[in-house]
Amino acid sequence: MIFANLAQLRPGALVISSDGFLISRNEQLATLAVRHALPAISQERSFVAAGGLMSYGRSLPETYRQAGIYTGRILKGEKPADLPVVQPTKFELMINLKTARAFGLEVPPTLLARADEVIE
User: Fold this and answer.
1) What is the number of other CB atoms lying within 10 angstroms of the CB of residue 103?
2) Using one digit for the tens of pLDDT, what is the confidence trace for 24-82?
3) For the chain, does the N or the C end have fewer beta carbons within 10 angstroms?
4) Among the residues of 17-119, which ranges form H helices?
């Protein structure tokens, strides 16, 4: 029902935030976005794999690697309060060309060249 209402408002695109509830429903959200012709982007790669148009967000493997480094430092005796806050430094762009074509969108070649993964 929400997607039907959004379609009536005719937004240019939809940005889906990254939280546990929404991530667990990536497939459903991607399906609804395509059904209602709403180009959508998320921070999660799994959204694009499920049929969403694009994702741009932190690299999950890199995030896990950093967590492992922190765990090692703590296990070696460093106090967690003394460790600096680390923000993601590696981001990934994923594009679903099949979905773009369904929307009648042409993705610029320069954007495709910058993408870490393109689903055709």
Assistant:
1) 15
2) 788 888 888 888 788 888 988 888 988 899 999 999 899 999 999 999 999 999 999 99
3) N
4) 20-23, 26-35, 45-49, 60-75, 97-102, 109-114
